[in-house]
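P.,

For your records, the input lines for the assembly:
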Amino acid sequence: MENLGNMSIAQVKDGLRTKQFSALELAREAVRFAEAENSKTNGYLTFSPELAEEAAILVDAKIARGEDPGLLGGVPIAVKDVLSTKGVRTTCASRLLEKYVPAYDATAVERLKNAGALIIGKANCDEFAMGSSNENSAFGAVRNPVALDRVPGGSSGGSAAVVAQGTAVASLGSDTGGSIRQPASFCGVVGVTPTYGRVSRYGLVAFASSLDHVGPFARNVSDAAVVLEAIAGRDELDATSAFAPVDDYQTEMRKPVAGMKIGIPKEYFEGLEAETGDKIHAGLDVLRKLGCEIKEVSLPHTPYAISCYYIICTAEASSNLARYDGVRYTARAEAATLTDMYAKTRGEFFGMECKRRIMLGTYVLSHGYYDAFYLKAQKVRTLIAGDFSNALKDVDALVAPVSPFPAFKIGEKMADPMQMYLSDIYTITGDLAGIPCMSVPCGKTAEGLPVGMQIFSGHFRESTMFRLAYAFEQAGGVA
Amino acid sequence: MQFSKEDVRKVAKLANLDLTEAEVERMAHDMAEVLTHMEQLSTLDTSAVQPMAQVLFEAPATASLREDAVRDRTLLGTEEALHNSALSGAGHFKVPRVIER
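C-alpha cells returned:
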C-alpha cells in the first residue's frame, strides 16, 4: 500500500483482486494514514473506523466467496459533514450540532455503503455549507494541501482537501452555489455537481432546498463518474429526485469528442485574473486539437446572478434553519420562556455567516419586501435558466473558468462578505439552472496554484460532460 | 440602501435570533452593503416572466406520489427520536414552561 496517498479506484480493485491487501487491511491503513496526516489540513472533523472496518469485512467476505464486492468495493471515501451518517456524529461544522448523531443514513451514504465503500470519516466544511473558503467552520478552517497558507475553497473544502492530500480516494460534497466545483478547482481535483434531482437529497442537511446538490470529488474523471453512478438515481424519499435512468458513464465517457460543439460564454471571461484566463484558453486549445468546434455564446443575465442567488439561497436558508430551536437538536441555551430559549440558543450557537444569511433571508421574505426581492429573484432565475437552455440549443456543452482567481490566502476575504459572495460568480448560475457542471484540473499558475476548467451540459447529460472531461484529461490537460 | 440598527433588531426578532450589540452594528453595515447590490434586480423588466421556484424534470404529474404506507426506512422509535433532544423526559421533548397556571 505504498501508494495509498495516490490510489485510484481501479488500483484499489486491482489490489484487492490480486490479494496485495485485504479490504480490512486497507480500511485500517486508510484511517490510520488519514488521522496521522490530518493536522496538516484539518480536512476531517470525525473519523469512523468502525464504519470502515464493518464495510471492509463484508467486502472481504464477498471477495472470498467469489462475488462482486460492488462498484466501490473496498474504496476509502470521506463524506462531507452535512450528510447524515447513522451512528456517526454529523456536525455541519456547527457548534449547534456538535453532539448530533443521526438515527438514519442519507440516501447517498446508504448507496455508498451498498456499493461497498469504506466510509472513513466526515469532512470539514463551512458551517451549514455556507461559505466559499471553509473559514466558517466552527471547528477551524481547512488549509489547502497545495499551499497551506491558502484556503481550500468552500463550502466543501474538507472534501476537496482530503482527496487532494491523498487521505481519501474520493469524497462526497454538496453544492448549492459552487461548493463542489470551486474547492475542486482550488485544490486541483475533479468535482462534479450533477443535474438537480440526479442524486437524492434525503439526509442532506438542508441549506437551500431548491439549489442543493450532492456530488463527488476524485483525483480523476473516471473515479468521479464511478462514485456518481453509485449514488445517482430516483429515491422515493426525495420527491424532487428524478426518474431519468442513470447512464453507464464508464462507457459513455470513452466515446470520441471530435465534432462536439462547445460554447464559451463571453460573460465568464470578463473580470477574471489574467493567468486564470490564460489557463482556460490553453484548455480550449486542447479541446480544439481533439476536434471540438468552439464558438462564443452569450449568457446575458450573468451580471444579475449574484443578487438572484443570494436572495433565493438566504430565503430558503432562513426557513430551513428555523428548525434549530433548542428542542430537537442537542444544543440549548437556558432561558425562562420558550421564545427566549429559541432566540438565545440560536444567538449563542450559530456562527456569523449563518446569522447573516438568516437575517438576509428573513428580510427578503418579510411582509412588504417579498415581491421586490424574493419573487423578483425567482423571476430572474427563470431568465438565467433560460440563458443556458438557449445557449445549449446550439452547442453540446459550455466551457468556462470555475473561479475568477485561484485559491486566496486564509483571512484575505473574511472581512467583507460582499467580496466573498462575488467570488461565486461563475458557479452559482449552474445551480440556479439546475444543469450538470464540473471542475476539471486545468494547469497551475506560476505560483503553483491549481486552476479549474468548468464544463456545463444540459439537464441529465452528465455523460456529455464526462466525455469532454475524460478526453481532456487523457490528452494530458494543461501544464 | 440604508439599514439601521433598529431595522436589524426588527428582523432579528422575526428570526428568533439574539444578536449582541457588536453583531447588530456589523449586521447593519453588511445588510446595507448586500441589499444595495441586490437592488440592481429592479432595473430588469420581468413583467412577462414567470417565477422559477424549482428545477423541473419530465415526469407524469403524479409520479412523485407514493402509497400512504409506513416505511421501515423512515420509522423512528420514541427513544431514537428523542436521542438528540436537548432535554427529554417521559417520552417527550421538554421545553421551558409555556402556559402559566
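Two observations worth noting. The domain at 5-43 of chain B is CATH 1.10.20 (Histone, subunit A). The two ends of chain B are 47 Å apart (CA to CA).

Regards
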